[in-house]
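[SOLVED] Need 3D model of a two-part complex

Original post:
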Amino acid sequence: MSLGLWALVGVFVTLAVLRVPIALAMFSAGMAYLWASGQDIGLVVDQTMNTLQGLSILLAVPMFILAANVMNAATISERLWAAAEALVGRFRGGLAHVTVLVSVVFSGMSGSAVTDAAGPGMLALRMMRDVSKYPAGFSAAIIAASATIAPIIPPSIPMILYALLSGASIGALFLAGVVPGLLMAGSLMLAVVIVARARGLPKGEALPLPAVLLALRRALLPMTLPAVLLGGLFSGVFTPTEAAAVAALYALLLGFAVYRNLGLVVLFAVFLESARQTAVVLMLIASAFLVNYAITVEQVAQGVAAFVASAELGPTAFLLGVAVLLLILGLFLDASVILLVFIPLLLPAARAVGVDLVHFGIVALLNLMIGLITPPYGLLLFVMAALGRLPLIEIVREIWIFVIPLVAVVLVLILFPAITLFLPRLAGW
Amino acid sequence: MEALAAILFAAILLLFAAQIAMRFIGRPILWSDEVLVLLMIWCGFLTAALMVPERDDVAFDLVYSLFPDGTRRWIALAGTLAVAGIFGAAAPGILDYIAFLRFETTNILLIPLTWAFSVFGFFVLVTVLRRLWSGLRLLGPGWRREIARIEGRDG
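Solution:
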């Protein structure tokens, strides 16, 4: 390892342990690398700003963030909840099924797991824990687990970042995520069935047919958005970036003109909050560009690729190894760090082994999402504990029962690439 | 300040809507992509510099949270001063480089890159000042409040 690389890793690890925000730690590590390797510090500007400037695809990030925030402000989750409850609320532990179902539909509009947990998730917690007296830890656990679906079913902010890093087509990634996302939902609902019976969770009441139809009709407009987005992408009417803007505009139209529950004051707050969330993501991306510059110059990824090549793994064995590695990293690291720093290290190896980069991306992202709910470091667990005001340990105790089915989905996706790849291939990618 | 962030963000949305609409009627706006990206960069770095509280940032606190408040004070101080030092040492070179770009321009509207990228210099300088300020507060009698603020426990 060169002196520069030592400086990079040393500064990053030291600052991260000192609880410096990750983006600032990555910027600092990149600067230390440039000094230690005798390069011009002006490269910081070159690598971050020039790279950002050339990537208009990044514009999808603020638009998807905005769309999800508007959906939350316009109480669209309430309508989705009522519709899902009318359908599956009558089963034992029905509200947990409702939570999964709402997550699936919301996933089709939002690309961020945290937004899903903070928006529809809070509504779900109120309904399960406060209204129906479900155990608090169980309620928070199924919400956190369902929220991991959001970035797998398109739109998806992590997929946009992965596409930037790998050069894989965003359209193909979006379509490839649909079936795996539905599989995740199915596996979680299966786990709910088992837990609900074992713990004797209450059943909801069955609604008469007219009430079911009414609830569905009231949710019809928001439910058309995922269909419009997917249809537009599938047929090529709009690009993924434009799809993001369309989603945001559609949500604003619903809130302002149709449901009339958005005012200028709320809108201002939504814009400001969206600007904040965008800034956090943008800083992570910009600083990751700098770190990736160092990693590229030092040819670290080539080293990893050579190592993997020397092990003579087939695609399946390689993906299994990656899954184990990412699950372990996910115990301790934030998904954004793994995605922006570790995934680029694995990409040349994935290419060399002959794994389809779309397939690799979906498997890797699903692993990262599981990392969001595995302790000790699981962002979604923290979000649920903070917003739901309940002890972290209560959620941790209940989460494993939902981690198992999600890991099973990872295995299925690795063993059967066609599950992921048939939709994008059907669309001609 | 908050109004500026919200307005920049709203501008991105409006220009995006205009771009899609104009392309639809067959008269695409040629400069919109360039302006959209610049707006996003400016909105992002200004907001990150001035309006993102520490608790919203992604940080690794597994080690940090093992310690009592007294120790956390020194950990936070070491981290914040290290960032101030590194960013401070890099600032002159970064500002030089941005000034050096004055003869280079963006592709379509020919905006000098010195102007386009100046927001990054601003971000670096504000980061140094904010870290120093946080360091001072950690050294002073109000350090418990500063720790609560960093961790987002101050409600």
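Edit: The CA atoms of residues 97 and 114 of chain B lie 9 Å apart.
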